[in-house]
Amino acid sequence: MLPFLNIGPLGLPTAPLVYLLGLWLSLYAVDRAARRLGHDPERLYAVASVALLGGFIGARLVFILLHWSSYDDNLLGIIWPLTSGYHAAGGALIGAAAAFFYGRWRDLALWPTLDALAPGLIIFLMAVSLADFLGGAGYGSLTSLPWGVTQFGVRRHAVQLYEVLAGVVALGAWWAVTSPRFRGLDGRPFLLAVAVYAGGRLFVDAFKETTPLMGGGYHVVQIVCLVVVLGALVWLGRLSAAKSAGTIASTH
Amino acid sequence: MRERLEWVTLIILVSLMGAGWIYVSRETSDAEPMPVTTAPYVGNLAPDFTLQTIDDQTITLRDFTAEGGTPVVLNFWATWCPPCRVEMPYFESVNNLYDGEVAILGLNQAESATVIADYARDHGLAYPLLVDDDMRVNNLYGVLNLPTTIFIDRNGVVREVLIGTISQAVLEDRIEALLE
């Protein structure tokens, strides 16, 4: 855990630094992914930028709307301080909506666009986990296993790093399925990467101490991840079946 | 047809495995309670202390939280720290808003009572400002960076530690959570 990087008298908070690094890396990844898939990198870079900017502004706006009574007599508080006061789910929804409508406006095909955006999305989520690890948020449950890390004075599962590992595996899956050998089905790289990442998060969330719970003690994140995995698999099956049907029709 | 069957089988298998894992890893109420130790970390009892305010009142943390009493928001600050100065009006505001429901305590870092009192008078701060000129409590809580805000529930357990400036909305959001 390293919440602050102390350089002389200056204490730099590590979590915002990792977020900034994550933003830059995810945009870079989208650029590289677009080139690998043979798409125009500039258009996809623009979609990713709209998603990130929309997400940032949306997360702030949703939080402000939910706590308007705290802002109506302090309008400066809307823009300062920026270190806290965001609604993650609201940001994700507004960011996705902004990217969707921008993509439609620019006449971008849905699946190829999502295929190129997938690595950027996963890298950003990995950066969030890493920022949590350094800042001390979202920590794991107690463990005596040798790979546990000491956080808050006790040995815990490094669950944020497990999440990063799930991201690495998902990126590996994306890389493999976009190789010349497997390429050819739009949507498959995105759906596979999302399914692998969500499956990983479903598994590792069991070791998280601070995860939201619903009735019966079930982890909300695990249930959402299972829905995402199954949704991705159903779509993969449909795409695969459509391709097979197309192949059979073209041979007749 | 065969491919379709393979996909259906895969989806059923993943559903069963995923649901099984979710069931196995759910939080059960019969889990053994974690021993609560004293430490300035989330899930532990906040270390107790007694300090004087700038008005020469004696404040003891445990007096607030004894027998499920009042939640406490403990803000570590200093007059020379610009981010701390930004959020001081927010603490004053929530102190008025949640008067009696939550204890807001400003715990200064290493400055004299006179310096703190001058600052409080100039900026109209009325909530309790504690003097820790020998850094005893700052060291007890391991405060390295200012501002640091610690949210302590009515049982004296640390619920959250926020490092850096927070807005009034964040402050109210966390206080509402403490009062739930």
Q: Could you describe the 3D structure shown?
A:
The complex is a heterodimer of chains A (252) and B (180). Chain A is mainly alpha-helical and 252 residues long. Chain A has seven helices and four strands, in the order ββααααββααα. Chain A has helices at 14-37, 41-66, 88-105, 110-135, 159-177, 188-204, 220-251; strands at residues 4-7, 10-13, 149-151, 154-156. Chain A has a two-stranded antiparallel sheet with strand order 1-2. In chain A, strands 3-4 form a two-stranded antiparallel ribbon. The longest helix of chain A has 32 residues, at 220-251. The radius of gyration of chain A is 20 Å and the shape is globular. The model of chain A has no long low-confidence stretch (mean pLDDT 88). The mean pLDDT of chain B is 87. The radius of gyration of chain B is 23 Å and the shape is elongated. Chain B has six helices and seven strands. Chain B has helices at 2-24, 61-65, 82-97, 113-123, 136-140, 168-179; strands at 50-53, 58-60, 72-77, 103-108, 129-131, 148-152, 158-163. Chain B is an alpha/beta fold and 180 residues long. Chain A binds chain B through residues 3-4, 6, 11, 13, 63-64, 67, 69-71, 74, 77, 80-81, 83-85, 135-136, 139, 142, 152-153, 199, 202-203, 205-206, 209, 213, 216-219, 222-223, 225-226, 229-230, 233-234, 236-237, 240-241, 244, and chain B through 3-4, 7-8, 10-11, 14-15, 18-19, 21-29, 34, 39, 41-44, 83, 86-87, 144-145, 161-170, 172-173.
SSE order and pairing:
The complex is a heterodimer of chains A (252) and B (180).
Chain A: E1 4-7, E2 10-13, H1 14-37, H2 41-66, H3 88-105, H4 110-135, E3 149-151, E4 154-156, H5 159-177, H6 188-204, H7 220-251
Antiparallel strand pairs in A: 1-2, 3-4
Chain B: H1 2-24, E1 50-53, E2 58-60, H2 61-65, E3 72-77, H3 82-97, E4 103-108, H4 113-123, E5 129-131, H5 136-140, E6 148-152, E7 158-163, H6 168-179
